[in-house]
Each structure stands twice: as structure tokens, then as C-alpha cells.
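2024-03-11 09:14:02 DEBUG pipeline.ingest accepted 1 chain
2024-03-11 09:14:02 DEBUG pipeline.ingest length=609
2024-03-11 09:14:03 DEBUG pipeline.predict start
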Amino acid sequence: MYLKSIEINGFKSFANRIVFSFEHGFTGIVGPNGSGKSNVADAVRWVLGEQSAKQLRSTKMEDVIFAGTENRKPLGYAYVALTMDNSDHSLPVEYDEVIIARRVYRSGESEYLLNGSVCRLKDVQSMFFDTGVGKEGYSIIGQGQIDKILSGKPEERRELFDEAAGIVKYKKNKAATEKSLEKERENLSRVNDIISELEGRVEPLRIQSEKAKEYLEHKDRLKTLDINVFLLESESLKEKSEELDKKLETVANDIENNQINLDKARKTYDELEQKKEEYQNKIAEKQAKINELQLSIERVNGEINVFNEQIKTAKLEDEHITGRLTQIEEQLIAKRTEKDAISEEKSVLDEQIDAIYDEQTEAEEELEKTRDQITALNDKVSTYRSDIVAFINESAELKEKAARYDAMLEQANLSKVEISKRMLTYKSEEQQANNTIFECDEKLKELKESFTEISSDLAKNEQILKDLSEKGHLNQNKRAQAEQEYHRSKSRLENLNNMAERYDGYGHSIKRVMEEKEKNSSIYGVVADILSVNKNYEIAIETALGGSIQNIVVEDEETAKGLIEILKKEKAGRATFLPLSSIEPRGEFKNKEVLSENGVIGLAHTLVK
């Protein structure tokens, strides 16, 4: 058995796939420091099952994957395969050529392959027992391995000698067998303990078994009695059911008869209602005609009263004008008399002026006085003349008004005659209308007498209809209010649901974790979503919880660790998790005397669901 080739892809510094082929003889790999010579030995050790990253000169297992450079992206996995010549069948497998491979991904997943088939690490290790090949075997001597062997403990050197002597397989089998025997001893001890415990319970169980048998016998008897009682009750109920069916049939017939009578009554009621409506329409038409006649009579009476008032006014004005004319004529006579006196006085003065004209020089002062008197008298004459002209004009106007009032009086007399004729016509029509009204009243009395019989039932039905209508309006109002309240509540609920689905008001880390809730059923939600609180205690509970109201409840610690890794990887912030598998209650409330104090409502955990 010898190593034929090593295939490496993505392991440490080997970014590209490379195959080392080994022929018979010695093969050396040379190069400067840091070129990756030791990585070949690390690859062999790694594919043979090395689990310690420190032995591979790394800090963690993901470090064996090519990490990339400035010009090349990192790879997602590392793969190493050893091809062994097994023509002598040193390895306990049927193949002449054995390929041992190992692949690890950056997500942490790892697998071992034996000739392309997935296998276990234990299968690889057991296959190389006593061959000198293995991660601890002497066939792989790494840096400092010789010094470690020489300065190591006797037990460590003993492992190399056992490997060379070919007894490692038997020692491993012995250790595994001894471990299995020890487990069997422990299991046997537990079985003996269980047997000793159960032996003490045999007698009580025997007594319980006898009681159970007796119970089953009584139970069967009770079942038989229950069946008999049920059969008796079934017969009785069947008879009662037949009686009820007969009563139900009778009631159904009564309902059908009552329905027929109700339909007849409704039909009669509809006919009477139709006749009532026709008579009411006729009465309304006659009443409208009567109202029109009454309005015409009142209008004519009003016109007559107006004409009478106008006649009275015209007579009063005529009397006033006549009196005024008499007064003006008297004033005119008086003015004329005064004018004659003045004329006579003027004649006397003229004679005196002619008599003393010659004495003008001597009596000039007296003349001046006389001239002044003449001038004053002339002014008076002019004034009297103007008054006379005004009186003449006013007399003409009064005569014209008197003529106009005479014409109006004549027209009023003509209108009065016309109105008298129309009044006679209206009185005749009023007599006809009164006769028609009398006939309508007689018919109305007949209708009232025929309508009295159903009026009480109609009133009751109308009251019932009114009550139902009022209830319907109330129900419609309530329904409208309820619909408005429903739409408001629905809109508010949708807004709240949208806010709850988006987790508005929560931190970015809380929102990111709750995005995983649909994928991961182990996430129960935040404390605020899980608690249900009476509205009266919301502020108190929210204040008591404080920041804990945004803590996230999960099923176990593994779920919490996975979510923390997601937050770290995405740098989404921090969050507090409450795994149900690890949290414990705080115990009972010790200061119970506080609960009896005035104003204390209760403990918070009793006020929430």
C-alpha cells in the first residue's frame, strides 16, 4: 500500500486545483519559506480526520479555506482527496484503489467521502488502524514532530509503538468493549433497582386488579341497565313525539285558516281604503271649490268696502271743497269791499292832491309824507291784487277737483251696481255650493258609519305599523351608527395591523428578527405581542415592563444563538432573547401583606393573560 496522489482544491494557499502524483521512490517538495510546503502535510493530516485547528496552524476550521487576495475572491469550500494503492488489500476494503476525501464549507458543514460515497469519520479512522497511517500515525512527521516524540511522555511514545506493532486496533476495540460493558453493568444495575421497586408494588397491583375486574363487571351491568332505561325512555319519548306531531298538525291547520281570514281582511281593508281615498279626493275637490267661492265673496266684499270708503272720502272732500269755496268767496267779497274803500280813499286823496297842488312848494314836507302813504297804499293794492289772482286760481282748481270727484262718484255708482249684480250671481252659486256641501256631508256621514266598524282595527294596525316603523327607524339609525363605528374600527384595526406587521415603534434589530418568524416556528414573538392586558392596566404594565416589553420570546437557546448570529452577521443591532428552555420563575411574592393595603389592585401577573 502506498500513496499514489494528492488532490487539493481551495485548501489554504491552494486556490486552484492541483494534483500531486507520487511514483515509486522518493518525492521531495522544495521552495522558499512561506511558499506553502507545510500546507501539503497539513492537507494530508486534515483529510485523515484532524479535528484540531491548532494542529493545522489555524485558529478555526474555516481558516483552512482559501481566504482570497486583492486580485482574487475567496472560495466557499476546501477539498482534499488521497488516492491509495490497495492492490495488496492492506486496507479492509474490496477496492484495489481507495480514494479518501474530505470537504468543508464556509457555513461550517463538513463531510467525508470514501470512493465518492459519504461516510463517517469513524469509518475512516477504523480503516487505517494498524497501518501506520492516520492523523496520529508515525507515517506523517510534521514540523517539530521528532522533537515532540523524543521529549514526549512515555504514554505518548507508547502510542507510536502500539501503532507500529499493529495492536492499536485491538486496544481500541478493547476500550470500546469495556466501555460498552460498563454501560451494560449500569443498565443492569438500573434494571435490578426497577425490579426491586416493582416487586414491592405487585401485591397492591394485584388488589387493584381484582377491584378493577369487579369494577368492570359492575360497569357492564350498569351499561345493560342504562340501555334498558334508554329503551323505556325512548318508547315514552316516541309516544310524546306522536302527540306533539298531532298538536303541531292542528296548530298548522289553525295557522292556515287564520292566514286565509287575514288575507280576506286585508283585501277588504284595501278595498275600503281605496274607497276612502276616492271619497276623500271628491271631498277635497268640493272643499277647494267652496274655498274658491268664499275667497271670491270675500274679495268682492273687500272691493265694495273700498268703494264705500272712497265714496265717503269723496263726499268729505266735496263738503270740504264746498266749505272752502264759500270761505274763499267770503274772503273775495271782503277784499272787494276793502278794494272799493281803498279806491274811494284814493279818489279823496287825488282830489286833495289836486286841491293842494298849487300849495306844493309850501307843503312839500307834507307832500312827501303823503307820497309815502300813497306808496304804502299802492303796495297794499298790489298785494290784494295778487291775493285775488291766487284766490281765482285756487277757485278754478277746486272747481276742477269737484268735477273730477263728481266723475269718480258716478264711476263708483256704476261699479256699485256691477258689484251688486255680481253679488247676486255669487249668492246663487253659494246656494248651489251649499247644496253640494250638504250632499257631500250626507255621503260623508254614510261613509263614517260604514268606516266605524273597521276604524278601531285600523287604528290598532296603524299603531302597530307606527311602532314597527319607529323601531325600524331606530334600528336603521343604530345600524348606521354601528356601520360607521364598524368602518372606523375596521380602518383603525387595519392601521394597527399594518403597524403591527411592520413592527412600527420597534428597533431595527427587532424588525429584522421578526422577519425570520415565518421561516422559524421557534420564534414566538415579542413580549408586547404575547401579553393581553385590560385597558385599565395598560399604562401600569407598560411602565413596569419598561424596555423588557421589546424582548423576544423563543423556544430554546439554540434558536436565540442562531438569531444572534444573524444580527451579528448583518450588523443589525442588539436584541434581548428569552428562551423558554432556560428562563425560570422568580418564585412567590413574599410581602403579601402589601396586597391588603388601600389602593392596591393586585400583582401584575394576575392582571395579564
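2024-03-11 09:14:41 DEBUG pipeline.report The longest strand covers residues 77-85.
2024-03-11 09:14:41 DEBUG pipeline.predict end
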